[in-house]
Amino acid sequence: MTEKDPGIPSSPNHMAGTPERKFLAGPANRSSEFFRVLRIAWEFIRGFRALHFVGPCVTVFGSARFGEDHEYYALAREIGRSVAEAGFTVMTGGGPGLMEAANRGAEDAGGRSIGCNIELPEEQHPNAYLDRWITFDHFYVRKVMLVKYSYAFIAMPGGFGTMDEIFETATLIQTGKIKDFALILVGSEYWQPLLDFMHDTLLAERTIDARDLAAIQIVDSAEDAIQVLKEAAIDRFGLTYVERRPRRRWFLFE
């Protein structure tokens, strides 16, 4: 499987035609804005229909830039396998790198593997280890899907995109928009400086509370990640979604 360079192209107009660039360009005429809302609504509906029966998920975040020969890839694959063995569906952003590794681990265990892919200026193909995937135009729609179906969140090492997902999830937990689900960062050597900044600066300046910081846990192994996951998702909340699995409706083409 060939990976494209995920870097940003040098041309300043590399995103000139994307839906998000057009959306953020300022007010358009009223009819254009109206039909844009309909297209965005349809993108949400597509996501809801595609993911309605995926079961209770654990979302694994992580960089697309680590290859198969990297230690983080091996660790993400082990985590994907362990998550699947614990009875969860593994959900990722559907791309290469550590997303691919987690999906691959789920496949290793015979578990379910789901991808929420995104259209990018440098084309990102769904990886080869997905049972099902859906491709989105808008990042914010994709991020809703990555959160909506998950009982816990595991963040492997990554860059801006991974940190965006970490902090958005942390904010949703902090503000009570989602339950106090587990938010697990894997790799203390990679993430500890970020946690130190949160403790030494954000907590010290009282821009967050100790409870907010305690919601984020760092581990270094798949075993420890799964232990935190089981305590949070199973012992604390239970898997009620499994107990009340929705019925398929023929008239919705399910």
Structure description:
The structure is a single chain. This protein is α/β, with parallel strands linked by helices. It has a single domain (43-252), classed as Rossmann fold, CATH 3.40.50. It has a 7-stranded parallel β-sheet, sandwiched between helices. Strand 2, helix 4 and strand 3 form a beta-alpha-beta unit. It has helices at residues 19-23, 30-51, 71-85, 98-108, 139-148, 160-174, 188-203, 210-214, 222-237, 240-243, and strands at 57-61, 89-92, 113-118, 132-136, 150-155, 182-186, 216-219. Helix content is 47%, strand content 14%. Helix 3 (71-85) packs across helix 4 and helix 3 packs parallel to helix 9. Residues 1-15 and 240-244 have low confidence and may be disordered. The chain has 10 helices and 7 strands.
Q: How many domains make up the coordinates?
A: 1
Secondary structure: number of strands:
7
Reported CATH architecture? 3-Layer(aba) Sandwich
- Helix/strand order: HHEHEHEEHEHEHHEHH
Structural class: alpha/beta
- The first-level CATH class name: Alpha Beta
First and last CA, distance? 31 Å
Mean pLDDT over the full residue set? 87
Shape: globular
For the biggest sheet, the summary is: 7 strands, parallel
Strand content: 5-15%
Range of helix content: 40-55%
Give unreliable regions as ranges.
Answer: 1-15, 240-244
Q: Kindly report the oligomeric state of this protein.
A: single chain
CATH-defined fold name: Rossmann fold
Give the number of helices: 10
Taking Cα atoms only, what radius of gyration do you get, to the nearest Å?
A: 19 Å
Widest sheet, order of strands: 4-3-2-1-5-6-7
